[in-house]
Amino acid sequence: MAGIYFHVPFCRKKCTYCDFHFSTTFSGYRTPLLELMSSEFNQRLNEINEPIETIYFGGGSPGLLTPKELEMLLKEPLRIAGNQLVELTLEANPEDVTQANLSAWKTLGINRISLGIQSVNKDILRWMNRNHTVEQSISALKLLEAYGFSLSIDLIYGVPNQEVSDVLKVIELLDLFHIEHLSAYALTKEPNTALDRWIQQGKTAEIDDEMQIKHFYTIQHELKVRNFTQYEVSNYAKIGQVAKHNTNYWEGKPYIGIGPGAHSFDGVNTRRWNVSNNQRYVKQQQWFELEVLSENNIWNECWLTGLRTVNGVSLDKLQSLGGISSKEAEELKKLMVEGFLRLENNQYKLTDSGFLSADRLASVMFRV
Ligand code: SF4
């Protein structure tokens, strides 16, 4: 079992660029929804056929849950996982990090925090409509370090008017605090976000691809210098600090997603999608869909997820899915000649520049 994912669909504010599933008005149904998430887990125990090794609270903003709410959600998963559990991650924002929360999180067994810093430029934070300040980020890092959590921070690059020096200032936090994991995401224009609207209205310029590429290579270089491995398109870690939960997704291992908008995969060929609508989830009517993947879907996912990671796509795996055709072999050869791919230890892997366009490269190998 790769793990259990809890999607907490609440946020205090709506960030400019965000298209995740969440609501900012939830006080009327918060408790019933969380209780239903707990009962969804209990209803789906028959789907757990292997030890639970990881639990991940994502969102939304799981950091705004009270210790009692977290305890309620964790009670059964922790009992079932027992001592097989190796990683229990909570996504938190700097404003969630208080002494009281940290002691409670420790007591509950949370051992890894993914902190949504995004930027340490106050103007960029304001543009992003984030709910925290630069000062809150710094004091959160101090507290988290003192409590000894395994720590990851998020950074968003390619933001309008963001200088390379702004990106570097976030990276420099790695030198000041005991942070051994960084997730760096390129800003993207998603439909129905404020960013999308602003671009349509001409209030914000289109995302500057050249600037994003420059930021991407800066991050890649600076992290390499600091002995971080780029083990996935957006993720860098020191030795032993790779995020196990997310790595299991990319390796096609099974996981159960609980809550509105959460996805699940049985590790073979079936995906489940919970409805991205809090009210429908609470009513539990037509609240999830199942999808059985076709052979082509499985092949495409193998490229899409495998090529995102440092391990790449193995020839053995491709062989087990029927092997590559001569036309596909030609395409692969072309990508290698162009310097995007390499074949190492029977694995097709991205080169440093290949990481910049992993999805596009994977799509070359798609079957329809
Ligand atoms: S980026 Fe995070 S905090 Fe901001 S709206 Fe999206 S889920 Fe909520």
Low-confidence stretches: none
What's the architecture of the largest domain in CATH terms?
A: Alpha-Beta Barrel
Q: Count of helices?
A: 15
Heteromolecules bound:
iron/sulfur cluster
Radius of gyration: 21 Å
Mean pLDDT: 96
Overall number of structural domains = 2
DSSP strand (E) fraction? Answer: 15-25%
User: Which strand order does the major sheet show?
Assistant: 7-8-6-5-4-3-2-1-9
| Distance from first to last alpha carbon | 30 Å
Helical percentage: 25-40%
- Quickly name the level 1 CATH class of the largest domain: Alpha Beta
Give, in order, the helices and strands: EHEHEHEHHEHHEHHEEHEEEHEHEHHEEH
Fold-level CATH name of the largest domain: TIM Barrel
The total of beta strands comes to: 15
Q: What structural class results from the helix and strand content?
A: alpha/beta
CATH superfamily of the largest domain: Aldolase class I
Model description:
The mean pLDDT is 96. The longest helix is centred in the middle third of the chain and has 17 residues, at 209-225. The protein has 368 residues and is of the alpha/beta class. Helix 1 links the parallel strand 1 (3-8) and strand 2 (54-59). The chain has helices at residues 30-43, 67-81, 99-108, 122-128, 134-147, 164-171, 173-176, 194-200, 209-225, 244-250, 278-283, 295-306, 315-320, 326-337, 358-364; strands at residues 3-8, 54-59, 87-92, 112-118, 150-157, 181-186, 229-232, 235-237, 255-258, 263-265, 270-274, 288-292, 313-314, 341-344, 347-350. The protein is built from 15 helices and 15 strands. It starts with a strand and ends with a helix. The structure holds iron/sulfur cluster.
